[in-house]
Amino acid sequence: MKRTWLYVIPFAWFGPYFDWKEGSLLGYALFLFGLGALSYSLARSGKPKDIVIGNLVSFAISYGIALSVGRGYGEGYFNPLTVSQLVIGVSILNLVVQIPIVMHAIQRRAKQSKSAP
């Protein structure tokens, strides 16, 4: 349950923020690998519902931040996208990365439970 609370971190917000502020892709890496590892561990422990709810919460927080900073944020840095559009795009990319990771973890857990006496 404690790992599930990590989803309140606005992962999809950190990618664009670090890119704009520091010129670093570290935020995107944290986003993809952090959420990937978190989802994998939750899938291995048999909590796929927490993964779905967590992704929605993390996206909602990230999107809310993106909307709250308005047009002045980035000042055209992310053209042709707005910050909120970028958060949506990065979140979709996250799902593309996360779905195979979670499916692998679920299949691995199912194999382990079949082989256990």
UniProtKB/TrEMBL annotation:
Transmembrane feature ranges: 25-43, 55-74, 86-106
Keywords of the record: Membrane, Transmembrane, Transmembrane helix
Protein name: Uncharacterized protein
